[in-house]
Amino acid sequence: MSFIDIHCHILPGIDDGPGAVQDSVAMAKMAIDDGITHMFATPHILDGLYRNGTAVIKETCEKLKGSLPNGLQLLYGADVRICHNLLERIENEDIPTLNGSGYLLLEFPSLALPPRLEDLILELRQHKVIPIITHPERHLLLARRPALLRRLRECGAMSQITAQSITGGFGREIRNVSYALLRMGLVDFVASDGHDVRMRPPQLSEAFREVVSLFGEETAMRIFVRNQEEILDAVYSCSAR
Ligand SMILES: [Fe+2]
Q: For 169-204, what is each residue's pLDDT tens digit?
């Protein structure tokens, strides 16, 4: 089984992921062993804490490629915290979508849900940006409001849960929320959100097997493989233009 990981903090030294290149290389080896063939390097963009932008992310990504073992194709992206001038910053190419595909990893503030989220999603979609809401199962408020997640998806957002949430790495409650979201059909992607090789590993295969056994092969293929392939298709069609 081969996987595309759309959310991983593998770039060294620019967020709370690996500190040095050899740590990134160890993560890459682990990912390859797990069957991951493509990985979007998605460091945090979080004002006041991680001031990353498209230029530094692309540059760090290109540098890391030279040190990676064969078997893992690295693409760029970012794990983007909602900010007030989000659309403007995307259009200025200060904030990257997933390798320029238009798909955007979008993270909500940890302890709050901003007002008028539906309007934000609609506005992004009108500008050809497809927001992917990251780990709703781990968000204190959103985890309790699946109806809101459903509305956001109806407005055109997609959602991504974390592999370790499914396998129990974040505890029983988050695992139960993940199962509930899967049961309700509110999950579009599973990604590793890897940060290191010990606590937050870049692995997907165990969660894939669990989803196959609990929710069936069809669901597993859609949220681990097919939706990710659509992003890759968008990447390649954008770069061919
Ligand atoms: Fe992340």
A: 999 999 999 999 999 999 999 999 999 999 999 999
Q: Please, are residues 119 and 151 in contact by the beta-carbon 8 Å criterion?
A: no
Residue 134: phi and psi, rounded to 5, are: -85, 145
Distance 100 CA to ligand 1 centre (A): 18
User: 43 — phi, psi (to 5°)?
Assistant: -65, 160
Q: What's the 241 CA to ligand 1 centre distance in angstroms?
A: 29
Please, which contacts does 197-201 make with residues 24 or more away whose CB atoms are closer than 8 Å? 197/23, 197/26, 197/27, 197/30, 200/9, 200/164, 201/27, 201/30, 201/164
Q: Tell me how far apart the alpha carbons of residues 31 and 228 are, in angstroms, rounded to a whole number.
A: 16
Going along the chain from its start, the domains and CATH numbers come out as 3-240 (3.20.20.140)
Alpha carbon of 17 to ligand 1 centroid (Å): 9
Cα 204 from chain centroid (whole Å): 12
For residue 106, the CA-to-ligand 1 centroid distance in Å is: 9
Is the overall model pTM greater than 0.85, yes or no?
Answer: yes
Condensed to tens digits (0 to 9), the pLDDT of residues 208-224 reads 999 999 999 999 999 99
Angle at which helix 172-183 crosses helix 146-154, to 10 degrees, equals 40
Question: What is the dihedral angle through the alpha carbons of 72, 74, 79, 83, rounded to the nearest 10 degrees?
Answer: -170
Return the sign of the alpha-carbon dihedral for residues 25, 6, 221, 134: positive
Burial class (CB in 10 A: 0-12, 13-18, 19+), 34: buried
